[in-house]
Amino acid sequence: MPAGLFTRALSWFLAAGMLCALTGWADERDPSFRLGVIQERPGDPTLPFVQYGELLDYLSGRLGEERIRVAGLVVAEDIESMGARIARGEVDALIESLMPTLTLERQTGLVRPALLVWRKGQREYRSLFFARKDSPIQRLQDLNGRSIVFESERSTSAYFLPRVTLQAAGLKLLRATDVPPTAGEAVAYRFAGSELNQAYWVERGKADAGAFNDGDWERTPPSVRSSLRVFHRTEPVLRYLLSFDRRLDPGIRSTVIQGLLEMSASSRGRVALDQAARIVRFETLTDKDEAQLENWRRVLGELQP
């Protein structure tokens, strides 16, 4: 991480501690709010604090008007550990993509999506399956007996959605380490850790195909993308969601929602949103959005292990 970003993260920690000391808000009796996220880059543990520091500063000022203390960011290493922290009552709200959100909703019975989050300029996105331009792969069924590379198990567009799509096409997926060299009745998959690595792996022949979202396709360097070809597109899904623990005080929940919805209307709020993983704005879920979530809850319940 660049030294400047590390310094900003450290400054945010110190400022948060001084705020609690000066105002007395560290008292456990004061109402508080804790935002939770799952670590996107395990090799960079300070990244979430750099990303969400400004957003939490903004909320601290907004919630402070109601004497609600922003207790800090809760970062979990993966979906499982986030579920444990939610169960222990350590997280009041979660910001995540579709698959981790609905998985945690299903596993804990405690979180429920409340707001849609525009991220990286997208309200919705879809997964694109791609291969080298000189590859014989033309459709999903051509992946049988071949390999595909995903990003990580927590990714909606670069694992969950492609996985569901392949299973719906009648294909069986197996981790690459579980597939014998002569296997021809399954699609072998591995994780590359990032979308750019996925593209490089396919370009260089380390995997026959990859899958990630349409925004990541556009962000792939032209020198790499020129060697690749999209052969399948999924239906779009909601980009990102903010969910609340149902045990959170309704008054705090309402104040947080109002504060988040207002952020994009101010220059300071827009800067904080952009820093927080390039969020554009928060907005309420429509009836169509709720119907999409219900459909994916059903799919998740039917998903093969």
What layout of secondary structure does this protein have?
Blueprint: H1 3-23, E1 32-38, H2 47-64, E2 69-76, H3 79-87, E3 93-96, H4 98-108, E4 111-119, E5 124-125, E6 127-132, E7 147-150, H5 156-168, E8 173-175, E9 187-191, H6 195-203, E10 209-213, H7 214-219, H8 222-225, E11 228-233, E12 237-238, E13 240-245, H9 250-262, H10 267-275, E14 279-284, H11 287-302
Parallel strand pairs: 1-2, 1-3, 7-9, 7-10, 8-9
Antiparallel strand pairs: 3-13, 4-13, 4-14, 5-12, 6-10, 6-11
Helix pairs in contact: 1-2, 2-10, 3-4, 4-11
Features:
24% strand; 42% helix; alpha/beta; D-Maltodextrin-Binding Protein, domain 2; 6-stranded mixed β-sheet; 305 residues; 11 helices
Query: Average pLDDT across residues?
Result: 88
Which band does the percent of strand residues land in?
15-25%
User: Structural class of the secondary elements?
Assistant: alpha/beta
- Can you write the helix and strand succession as a string? HEHEHEHEEEEHEEHEHHEEEHHEH
Number of helices: 11
**Radius of gyration, taken over Cα atoms and rounded to an integer in Å:** 21 Å
CATH superfamily of the largest domain: Periplasmic binding protein-like II
Instruction: Give the CA-based shape.
Output: elongated
Gap from first CA to last CA = 36 Å
As for the number of domains, it is: 2
Strand arrangement in the largest pleated sheet: 2-1-3-13-4-14
The name of the CATH topology of the largest domain is D-Maltodextrin-Binding Protein, domain 2
* Strands, total number: 14
For the sheet with most strands, the description reads: 6 strands, mixed
- State the share of residues found in helices, binned by percent: 40-55%
CATH architecture of the largest domain: 3-Layer(aba) Sandwich
- Low-confidence residue ranges: 9-27
CATH class of the largest domain: Alpha Beta
